[in-house]
Specification:
By secondary structure, this protein is mainly alpha-helical. The chain has two domains: 2-75, Rossmann fold, CATH 3.40.50.1390; 101-139. The protein is built from six helices and three strands. A hairpin with a 5-residue loop joins strand 2 and strand 3 (50-51). The longest helix is centred in the middle third of the chain and has 34 residues, at 55-88. The model has no long low-confidence stretch (mean pLDDT 86).
Length: 145
């Protein structure tokens, strides 16, 4: 928008690729129409320098941007399907846990003995927050019992 504000009527805006004008086909079309209303011509180098404000340029822009948006939607669809497949297969997402189940049991015992959270964190070469999460889980389990 700052660029559009700085453009003078009758000027020319040159973009390297169509996707530099907006996030999706509709956004690109609105941007070109806004510029066209100010008599600013828009040339896209990736399309051979075609003027997007001419009828032929508008058609080219709409076809190309619609195909690009379709490809983005397909990519998102495949990504979501892959994530769902991985979850169904039992894949774990995120960082691996800092402590395994055996280490958590030892942390429970050390906490019960009254050892400080900082000392336990140093012993397991982790941060205090990890030990606090284990403690919260322990308290949550005790509350359910």
């Amino acid at each position: 928008m700052r660029l559009i504000d700085r453009m003078e009527d009758g000027g020319v805006l040159i973009v390297t690729k169509l996707d530099r004008l907006g996030r999706n086909a509709m956004d690109i079309r609105k941007t070109v129409e806004l510029l066209s209303a100010s008599e600013i011509r828009v040339h896209c180098l990736a399309l051979g320098g075609v003027d997007l404000t001419t009828p032929a340029g508008k058609m080219t822009m709409q076809v190309i941007s619609a195909v690009a948006e379709f490809e983005r939607d397909l990519l998102l669809e495949r990504t979501h399907a892959g994530t769902a497949w991985a979850k169904a297969a039992g894949k774990r997402f995120g960082r691996p846990p800092a402590l395994d189940d055996e280490q958590k049991k030892v942390v429970f015992l050390l906490l019960d003995k009254g050892i400080s959270i900082s000392a336990i964190a140093r012993e397991f070469n982790t941060i205090r927050q990890t030990i606090l999460r284990v403690k919260a889980a322990m308290e949550d389990t005790d509350a359910r019992s």
